[in-house]
Structures are given as structure tokens and as C-alpha cells.
Amino acid sequence: MEEPGRDKGSKVAADIEDPNPGNRDTTTVSTKSARGYPLALWIAILGLIMLVGMYIFSLSLQQNGMIFGLMQTNMIEKEREKPCHNPRISDTEIPYVHYPTPNTYDRKECACTAVRFFAILSMQRSGSGWFETLLNSHENISSNGEIFSVKVRRSNVSTITKTLDKLYNLDWYSSAAKNECTAAVGLKWMLNQADVLARYKPTIDKKLLISELKRSDKLAADSLTNFKNIRHIVLYYEDVVRNHTKLIDVLDFLNLPKTKLSSRHVKIHTKRLCDHIENWADVNSTLKGTPYQSFLNG
Ligand SMILES: *[C@@H]1O[C@H](CO)[C@@H](O)[C@H](O)[C@H]1NC(C)=O
Ligand SMILES: *[C@@H]1O[C@H](CO)[C@@H](O)[C@H](O)[C@H]1NC(C)=O
Ligand SMILES: *[C@@H]1O[C@H](CO)[C@@H](O)[C@H](O)[C@H]1NC(C)=O
Ligand SMILES: *[C@@H]1O[C@H](CO)[C@@H](O)[C@H](O)[C@H]1NC(C)=O
């Protein structure tokens, strides 16, 4: 960043010094030109100082923007430059909205639709697939599923950022792509990918049960700690099942028009929990009297 500054300064200085050798060569210097010369020099130096000063000033402004203001100042500038300042977007919201320009098509009439980027972080088997279908029933939301389930896309940081860039630039094609103006685009990221969905009636290892439950608790708690400085909302499956108005909170969070969300997702496990587990008696006795006892009522 400093290099171009120096280059520019020295280039300007060289231009000004150029006439000097000629002036020095003349042995007789008239008083007139002697008086005139310093004046011209002063003006030149003043101009140079102002130029370099302005340059350094603008440089430090740029650096402040990057170091202290992070992305926010830049984005506010970007937003102000837009011919289509969206009056629905308040100043505090500006850092959260984007105006993507996809490489693969022209957003045309949607060009001024502010887009919010989101990610759903979820535990396995927590109803996030169903939750996504609810989101995608909104005309302005595009939630693209577990795009990182494909190994090559998460093989290293550059493939991850490339995939995210493509998704958030609205260049990602999936069944979640919208014909309407997308105003919120995101994906789903599983916190614990390791567990394979077991459709069969599992036998639960009672020796590991408590430690596994504790591990899951810790994973969720750690994730919340890691993302505590990022704007987020926490949803519990049970709350969404019990209370559909909970989804209004989600649309509020994404600042989207409130419409009724629906899903054609079919619940697979419709029986009581005790009918889905082979060794229920073991599980019952293991969890009894622990903080996880309420899970037995599922
Ligand atoms: C990242 O992974 C991709 C695909 O596997 C590969 O083509 C690329 O060279 C890798 N880049 C780095 C920096 O390792
Ligand atoms: C949702 O999409 C419709 C249809 O494309 C568009 O007119 C509207 O502005 C969008 N809503 C938001 C909040 O962006
Ligand atoms: C349902 O959720 C809404 C929004 O979070 C809340 O205001 C309301 O009190 C909840 N109703 C019940 C019965 O829990
Ligand atoms: C757990 O076992 C006890 C008997 O030890 C029984 O009374 C209770 O109903 C069982 N709970 C469930 C949820 O099956």
C-alpha cells in the first residue's frame, strides 16, 4: 500500500526538479528571476506537499476503513453509490445487505433488491431439512441445503470460499433457485456430520449414552460461543413444531415480508420414541435422574 504512495511522490518531485539544472547552469541570475524562482519553487513545493498530503490522507482513510471500520464503512460507501438506495434498509441494516451481481445472468429488475446472506448451523437430525423447506416456501428465500456434503467442496479453504462466493453471488444452481427476487440466500452446515442416519431401530450403548449427550451439548454450546459476535437467532425443533408463529421470528430476522411458510416434508418417525429404540428399558434406566431425563418423554 505504501509503495504506490512513494512512487507517486517521487515522480511528482522529479517533474518539478527537472527545470532546476537548467536554471542552475545560467551563471548570471537576475534579481527578478531570483525572486521569481523561489516563489515558483514555493508554489511547486506547496502544491507537492498538498498533493502528497492528500494522497497520504486518502491512503490512511482507506486503511482506516479496512482496519478499524472493517467491511462496514466500505459497504456504506458502496450502498450510497448505488443509484437504487433502498429506503426500507435502515443505516444499521446496511452492513448486512448486499447487491450481488451474478456472473451467469443479469439480475435486471431485482438489481436493487437487497440480499441478506445467512447460514443455518445445525445438529444432525434436528429438523433442519424440514426447516429449510419451510424457508424455501417463501418467494424471496433461497436456502441451498448442505452444499458442503460434497467432499471436494470442503477439501481446502480455497474451495470453500470459492463455493461460498458462488452461492452468495447468486450463481449457484439448485432446486432452491428462485424466479422471484431473492432477498435472502444461504446454506445449511451440519455441526456433526459423522452420524449416519439410522432408519433401523437402533440399540443404544448405555455406557456411552450420557457422554455422547454431553458431547453434543458441548458442541452446540461451543458453536454458540464461537458465533456470539455474529448476528444470529437460535431455534429449537420443538418450538417450531409446537408454535408456527416462531417462523415469524425467522422472517423478522431476515427482514422479509411475513407470509405463511409451509412444507411437504413427511415426518418419518411418527411413533413414540420408546417404540423406535430396541433397548428402551436400558435407555430409560440410564437417563433416569439425569439432566436428560426429559428426553424420555419424546
Ligand atoms: C484445493 O482443492 C482443489 C480441489 O481438490 C484443488 O484443485 C486445489 O489445488 C486445492 N488448493 C489448494 C491451495 O490446496
Ligand atoms: C420478493 O420477490 C418479489 C417478486 O420478485 C419482489 O417483487 C419483491 O420485491 C421481493 N421482496 C423483497 C423483500 O425483496
Ligand atoms: C409462539 O411464538 C411467538 C413468537 O416467538 C411468541 O410470541 C408466542 O408467545 C409463542 N406462543 C406460544 C403459545 O408459545
Ligand atoms: C421408565 O421406566 C419406568 C419403570 O422403571 C416406568 O415407570 C416409566 O414409565 C418408563 N418411562 C418411559 C418413558 O418409558
Automatic annotation (TrEMBL):
InterPro entries on file: Nod_factor_sulfotransferase, P-loop_NTPase
Domain of life assignment: Eukaryota
Keyword Transmembrane tagged: yes
Compositionally skewed regions (Basic and acidic residues) per UniProt: 1-10
Entry annotated with the keyword Membrane: yes
Transmembrane domains' residue ranges: 39-61
Stretches for region Disordered: 1-30
UniProt keyword terms in alphabetical order: Membrane, Transmembrane, Transmembrane helix
Protein name: Sulfotransferase
Gene name per UniProt: gb03238
